[in-house]
Hints:
The protein is 84% helix and 0% strand. It is mainly alpha-helical. It folds into two domains: 195 residues, no CATH class; 197 residues, no CATH class.
Amino acid sequence: MLKRLLGAQWLAIGFIGGVSLLLNVFIARRFGPEAFGVYAQAVTLGAFLAILIDGGFGKLLMREMASSTPALASHTGDLHGLAFGHALRVMAIMALLTVTLPLPLHGLTLLATVAAFGVAVMSSLSLAILRGKGRLVRDAASQMVNRTLTAVAIALALWLGAHAPWQILVAQAIGALMFLAFLMRGVWIAPRFRVPGKVYAMALPLVWLDLATLIYFRSDMLLFEVMGVPMTDVGAYGVAFRMIEAFLLLATPVSLLLFRHFRLNADLLRDAPRWRIVRIAGMAGGVGITVFLVSLMTSGWFFTAAFGEEFGLAGDLFKVLSLMLVFALANGVIGQGVFALGEDRRYVWTATVAAVFNVLGNLLVMPVYGVWGAAWMTVATEIVLGVGLAWTLNMAWRRKLNEGVSA
């Protein structure tokens, strides 16, 4: 069963990663570094907007479908509709702001970003239910259908001559809307716009955790605009970072399985030695070391061959960024252990410290070192996060051990 679930998820990720890589190659070659830099910034902004549109309901749905929290037991059946209502309300507010406020990105690009990522979030809310119920094979198949529809829409836009980021994002939104219609066929959920305060109280910490994580992980793409970093360098950095994200996606199925397993067995780690988690984290870090060593030998020719000579800088940046995989993959495992021991709030504080460290560090180094400073700050931030998570795990384990001795 485990091999079947992991196999299905990795097949989906391999398919999605391969299709996404091809799309990025075609988009980068069509746009060039400068326009691709704008596109990369829009995608990064979309990731921030997606967290607000999601409102923590994605994690909440997955958690409650796995095992209902007593405080939310009376709302479990309404969560999907409440999530849709929240998403639609936030999307409407964002769309209104994009046409009324003077914002740095082009208005059409912002509107297209809200549409593309908003519809994608509404689909992900339904997929969260499948994951919470452990139906990872169907989830994997649905992800591949989603990527196929959005890829076809984007490819068609490129074939018709799309030359601006907003046109690609509109095509992505159309593909995502087609997938949502496919996913909800026959079982449409009516949005409920009056969300009880109790539900929001449960969702708010999850929103902040996602925001803090995204800030330390991707704020550099938005700070480039403020710091005046050349857009050609931003485009190269964006290409390199998209490849890093592809590797991180490969760890997602393991995280999903760990989450569900620990949720269903909340006391599993209460008596388990911390070294069990550390050993798994070490194995994950070993995978990161392998990627880093291979990148030292291959990334230079790979990026120029795949994306063109204009993106030669991306290969050099990837060598630095791949070093962060050593820590990011290990942190993912330790983070699951922290959650399993009920240390959600400490995780939030740790992520917040990492986010502040990343933003302040980038503000200091970007004016002097540009994209190179951002790359090294990404590595340093993962180290800071790892130290915080390891300390939290150690303290939690000691507390559980003392509770067991006292009992």
